[in-house]
Fold these 3 entries.
Entry 1:
Amino acid sequence: MTAPIPAPADNIAEIQQNIAQAKAHFQMTQAVTLCAVSKSQPAAAIRAAYAAGQTVFGENYLQEALGKQAQLQDCAIAWHFIGPIQSNKTQQIARQFDWVHSVDRLKIAQRLSDARTAELPPLNICLQVNISEEASKSGASGQELLQLALQIKQLPHLRLRGLMAIPAPQQDFAAQRDQFSQVRALFDHLNAHGLQLDTLSIGMSGDYQAAIAEGATLVRIGTAIFGARQPKPSPDTDLASKGAV
Ligand SMILES: *Cc1c(COP(=O)(O)O)cnc(C)c1O
């Protein structure tokens, strides 16, 4: 059974239009980066998106990402790690990615900084925050966030860029906005303390317009670009089913 290779170019063009329309509609002026989330998609699908001009890709599982990166070495891709981080994976994550969005504790940040080689530019970091305060979801809670951000800011081989959140899915646009506005408030709170964050990584296929209305500077979109994902049984994907995705 071979799955057809998706043709994401049209979807990317449509999403870019939707992003522009949402910005205009809500009178937002921030630049919005589209991060194409390619977990479970083959390297050929990434290559097709790349041929359409897409250069920023997000991956959740280290082993899966390494395999695809090896096949796409000729492409100038900015790789974003957006999945749960096990501490024994930090060394490879720090060396193989340009950004990590899912940092939620100091120990992981320290390990990433230690492993980032000096020849590379600092690793761009977003702190993952837990808005829904569900015990099952990863992410730092609001109270611990400022201290964590100030500590991570000191680490030599990291550059703290902003916040990432995956709020509980909501159908209702106002409810989506309400959750994102809480992330935005934390972002503003950290910047009021001098953190100089420039990246608000919020919004996925089902809610990116609401995220843009609340100031998203980076939206992480998978399904709307590549189509539905095929669940595949592997130790890596088992982690996702524990509530991280
Ligand atoms: C899978 C995933 C996405 C993309 O979700 P879609 O609903 O397919 O757009 C975005 N962010 C994270 C952290 C993810 O794990």
Entry 2:
Amino acid sequence: MSPKSFKLSALVVLAGWLPLISAAPASNGGDSTCRKTSVAILGAGMAGITAAQALHNASVSDFVIIEYQDRIGGRAWHGDFGKKADGSPYVVEYGCNWIQGLGNTGGPQNPVDLLAQKYHLANTYSDYDSILTYDETGYSNYTDLIDEYSDAYDTAAAKAGRFLVQNLQDETMRAGLSLAGWNPRHSDMKKQAAEWWNWDWEAGYSPEESSFVFGVAGDNLTFNQFGDANNFVIDQRGYSAIITGEASTFLAKDDPRLLLNTQVTNISYSDSGVTIYNHDGSCVSAAYAITTFSLGVLQRDTIRFSPELPQWKKRAIQNFAMGTYTKIFLQFNETFWPEDTQYFLYASPNTRGYYPVWQSLSTEGFMPGSNIIFATVVDDESYRIERQTDQETKAEAMEVLRQMFPNITIPEPIAFTYPRWTSEPWSYGSYSNWPPGTTLLAHQNLRANTGRLWFAGEATSAEYFGFLHGAWFEGREAGAQVAALLQGRPCVQYGDDRLCGERIHYETLTGTSPLSQYSILNGWAVSSLYDGGDD
Ligand SMILES: Cc1cc2nc3c(=O)[nH]c(=O)nc-3n(C[C@H](O)[C@H](O)[C@H](O)COP(=O)(O)OP(=O)(O)OC[C@H]3O[C@@H](n4cnc5c(N)ncnc54)[C@H](O)[C@@H]3O)c2cc1C
Ligand SMILES: *[C@@H]1O[C@H](CO)[C@@H](O)[C@H](O)[C@H]1NC(C)=O
Ligand SMILES: *[C@@H]1O[C@H](CO)[C@@H](O)[C@H](O)[C@H]1NC(C)=O
Ligand SMILES: *[C@@H]1O[C@H](CO)[C@@H](O)[C@H](O)[C@H]1NC(C)=O
Ligand SMILES: *[C@@H]1O[C@H](CO)[C@@H](O)[C@H](O)[C@H]1NC(C)=O
Ligand SMILES: *[C@@H]1O[C@H](CO)[C@@H](O)[C@H](O)[C@H]1NC(C)=O
Ligand SMILES: *[C@@H]1O[C@H](CO)[C@@H](O)[C@H](O)[C@H]1NC(C)=O
């Protein structure tokens, strides 16, 4: 299909909504009392701030950013934890923590890495080879299983590429791995731990719950294209410093265009405008709106859309998955674990994913002398500990540490905390994942606009879902396209690609998407088949 015929089908579909849309203004009785603006940006995380910057760059200065919380940054969220020798607290990241995909020379650079350099964000290379492995009896070397997984993964990744090119039915990551020779028994807890370290830790979901084709493609696009390194952010201003820094390039201090502490409750949209109603009774009437709310927020149905979102949009929202990733922080009065090692992998004898990865912040290059270590759990284990008290979770974590270090008398922690992402009403989860059996066109429906309401954010990125840079790319594209529509410019140029007008959506989805549909029109700007690595 040529880009032209895509546009045609989008127009046809649009005409189909018109009766619905023209009914909408009647319900917007409060319009005249609402604050007027050209673009309402919903959310001040990475996507919202980048969308606003794209508008600013295109000389659109008439926008309003509406944000639930009292701060910019969204899921780039940090807090004070424990204390230093002088009594002041450390700053730890509850949300995003790594700059992911960097290190290739000469190739395209991850935009988040560029921002990290611009703002001198303190970060340290995460050395995944700096790992010791444990089970319930203490230290037990099973790093060979990590290597065994990696070999099978490489075989599987190449096959996922053939699936994509030949338009073959997606399968689970589990099937992809099993057929490539990695097929661990449920009772083999060391293999399960090695697998968790390699897969669940990044995806936030098990291989059973993840798409084979898009899981591998996403991995390729970040780690082959930009580089395979991950750097861990330790900046005491917080990771959000790059977002507040960019915001300050176009927003004044106390800029009246930024509404903090304002919770959106209702969104009324049509083909001629969007009205946003807030919990405090205020409203904003805009020519266009860009929502950057997380997939979790959209899935929970806490925002009332008028008219109701169309079926194709509702299906897209419920078909993609919002994962939860929980970091559990402990500070001690001493560092009793091997101080020169970054990672400690624990294989529970009973439960896969039970306090599996421990990460030392006391190590040189991180926060030496902090005596802070943190464990990570995801998915069902996250939901389980979110239902527990801090005391219950602390007792479990301590029991695991005692198993890992049986010959050490481990002191009680002097500080303990973990965020409960699934219950945060401004996020309802951590980041998105593609379940098995999805297609690119199914995902395009998540990105497509409904009338003048546009959608952006981490989850709308087909290529970088789950990552901070995904939110950046999606914010930029939505902002630039809305600016073009407002200014009556037909198209926006992205390198060799052009984007014109509204986004496409698909009323009917079939099981697969042919290679010809992997284009920027469906959110696919770069091929995942490319092996950009210089190492
Ligand atoms: C635990 C965790 C670990 C992660 N690790 C990494 C990592 O290491 N590397 C990486 O690249 N990425 C990581 N991510 C992902 C990264 O944080 C996100 O992709 C990115 O921050 C999402 O940005 P966004 O703008 O799309 O959404 P958000 O940051 O969620 O922004 C949306 C904004 O909308 C606001 N909002 C929501 N509801 C309403 C409402 N009703 N009214 C008004 N405002 C509302 C929210 O408060 C928020 O500020 C991690 C995320 C989490 C949670
Ligand atoms: C806006 O322009 C500045 C300056 O050229 C650039 O650094 C920034 O990346 C642009 N932002 C977006 C979202 O396009
Ligand atoms: C663990 O075992 C592997 C071989 O399987 C070996 O190469 C490695 O050096 C061992 N690690 C340690 C810390 O002894
Ligand atoms: C992932 O990258 C590898 C090269 O490293 C390639 O062989 C494979 O086809 C790619 N897979 C997908 C799904 O893009
Ligand atoms: C917003 O939606 C709620 C239901 O969730 C409804 O009761 C209320 O009237 C709506 N408010 C506006 C201003 O549309
Ligand atoms: C722990 O103690 C046991 C018995 O006391 C001993 O066999 C084992 O080697 C010790 N382990 C370590 C890591 O020191
Ligand atoms: C830490 O506290 C324990 C008691 O809980 C104590 O035995 C130990 O000496 C303390 N370590 C340091 C370095 O003060």
Entry 3:
Amino acid sequence: MANLSFIFCEILMILATILLVVEPVKCYSKQHKALFVFGDSLYDPGNNKYVNETYLKVIATMWPYGETYFKHPTGRVCDGRTVPDLIAQFAKLPILPPYLQPGTHRFTDGANFASGGSGVLSETHPGTVRLRLQLSYFKAVKESLKQKLGDEKAKNVLNGAVYLFSIGSNDYFSFYRTYPNASQFYKGKFVKMVIANLTSVLKEIYDLGGRKIAFQNIGPLGCIPAVKSFDSKLGSACADEVSSLARLHNRYLSIVLNKLESHLPGFKYSIFDFYNAFADRVNNPSKYGFKEGKAACCGSGAYRGEKCGWTTINGTKLYQVCSNPREYLWFDGAHPTESANFQLAKLLWNGDPKITGPYNMKQLFKL
Ligand SMILES: *[C@@H]1O[C@H](CO)[C@@H](O)[C@H](O)[C@H]1NC(C)=O
Ligand SMILES: *[C@@H]1O[C@H](CO)[C@@H](O)[C@H](O)[C@H]1NC(C)=O
Ligand SMILES: *[C@@H]1O[C@H](CO)[C@@H](O)[C@H](O)[C@H]1NC(C)=O
Ligand SMILES: *[C@@H]1O[C@H](CO)[C@@H](O)[C@H](O)[C@H]1NC(C)=O
């Protein structure tokens, strides 16, 4: 019945739109689950084009970013689709536009607040859309939904939605750059501070109506070409010092989410073990259909770790770019190719509990 009335409502809306009676709004249905995305450059759909800081505005706004799928640079730090783009498609939702993009938005589908350079802590990369600012945008979305749909239906949208996160890498890059020789004690303290701030944001999302949280945990940061290009002593090995911060974070993250589930009625979650999934691809690229797992497709210097897309004023390219990004795990010095993202998104969507658990995203959407 719900489906029939939904279809009926859709037809009415199309007619109404043709007759210009009402603005084209999406019909609300119980089947329709929204996706809200919080995060950093791995998930940014182009929000950075609209931020104040010029150094952030230009991230991935030049060729060859976007060459594979969108055919033009969109601000995604990738040759094509990112993980949340693919998850939206798996969930039969449209690809979510940048939240900061001017114009009307259909928040019944969700919203993507992710922004390159951002972290959990407000001290990380000043000027970025840090996690707390992303949360304030989510609060504005809730208000907008309440005005459009009324309190009850807005609440149903937020309760049914899935909230997807990729955040924390930038906090640890910043920390590692500032304190390369931090003691075990200070590393532990820092990770706890990041986790505490993250936890308080998750609790607020719960209080605002969020129930289903999904995380891509932090990847093997020391294997990132940009990190390796700065330390010639490493050879082809990964920098374990910074990866160890990621591992510690990931351990605390699973403890915290487990605790939240037992304390907050209706709270359900999913953690995709991006760390191990990606480290295995770096070490055994051919097992996953890649020719190259260490160097990036686009960039210059060791491992093509930097300057993808950079040109001089006279038009001289400062980078090389591979002819087939599908053969590469990394597109630029810190971000996977679309073909790598496709494998990652599939694991997040319906991976088995060893890699994505206790629920995967497909199951979260069905709950
Ligand atoms: C940009 O600046 C405006 C005005 O100062 C401010 O309201 C807004 O929050 C800023 N945006 C970001 C992303 O910092
Ligand atoms: C960190 O330790 C290395 C030796 O392990 C040393 O070469 C380097 O100067 C130290 N860096 C700082 C910022 O203290
Ligand atoms: C969040 O991080 C700040 C530092 O950015 C720290 O002072 C504060 O205590 C943290 N908040 C929580 C709830 O841990
Ligand atoms: C363009 O500028 C670069 C240095 O920025 C220089 O090496 C190169 O020769 C210049 N090319 C032309 C065609 O002027």
